[in-house]
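[Automated response] Your request has been received and processed.

Submitted sequence:
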Amino acid sequence: MQRRDRERPGFSLVFWRELAWLRRRPLLLMLTVALPLVLMLLLTAILSAGLATRLPIAVLDLDGSELSRSVIRAVDATPDTAAVLHVAELSEGRHLIVARKIRGLLLLPRNLERDVFAGRRPEVVFFYNTQTFTVGNLVLRGANAAIPTVAAGIRISLRTAEGQPVEEAQAAITPIPLQTHALFNSTLNYVHFLLAALLPAVLQTVVVTTMAYAVGLDVETRHRFAVLRRLGGGLLPAMFGKMLPYTILFLSMLGVADAVLFKVLELPLRGEPVVLVLAGFMFVLACQFIGALLALLLRPVAAAVSIATLLTAPAFGFMGIGFPRLGMNHFAYGYGELLPGTWYLMARIDQTIRGTPIDLSWKPVLVLTGFVIVLVILTALRVLAMRRHIQGDGP
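Generated structure:
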């Protein structure tokens, strides 16, 4: 058996041995295939709608006039909000917001219509929960879109009733009109920016922790490390042969995620596919070598996996999706720079939503390539250093 093993290429022997390990170790198979697929399916199911619409709000109408009813109809007509019920008191509306049965409360004051047509400026008040940042901003956007439109229509009606032409009335209401054009993701589709960012963030954690566990199984003891080297015909070929099956599996998981995003959920691909593929390949390699290096540096395996989780689990918060990176402090900004997922997400956004020209898209790809080169060198140096401490190593 030993003679036949020596006749086979060491790299190939370790590669097929690792595939056999995947079949015999349910935990490894779960980490590499089942867990990524389940997480991707769960996130896709949550965010597949793309847009959060018709969020429920309540109305406290103290005026009961035709104008107040017009305001309610305008707010209800926006895609963001739905006026689902009327309340009798402010305390009742507050209780409903705290209980999360509604997402906002529109208060129309007494004498609203009388004050408006008398030239006064009554205040329409909208209450919402800023702790639920996304939902709060959506219902606020609906109210902000509807109420100024109603107010502008009333002011124009008052001016035209006095004999002023419609064009002059409109010019008087908005002397400097503002045109706004959303360049990217104008519909605020959550699939296009949140789901497309969450999937790489989840995969980054899965790749790093899986490689820390898989490599740690072979380097946890001197005996296993020596066996790995003997099977591979050298430590470095053995390490690369061990990692290659996971590279193929993780690239397949990334390909499945992209197939769902581009084919099913219609994420736009406005850039160059080759740049996106190259960035994805370097991203997976960088994450793999981070996990492998942690396994080579830390003992036991549980410590390597724990540190891998600790480093990558909060990565999404440093990628600049929920909070802009330019507004972060130096530590948060620097931590984000050290994560491969941050640079991969940059390349991903450039090639999907933005359609950035190829000459401006190479920086994140080059940074990811630099990550891989540095991590490969560090891993090789650590493997060679460990080799010197193993007794009985042969040539």
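Summary generated for your ticket: Confidence is low (pLDDT under 50) at residues 1-8, 391-395. The chain has two domains: 9-48+189-387, 55-173.
If you did not submit this request, please reply to this message.
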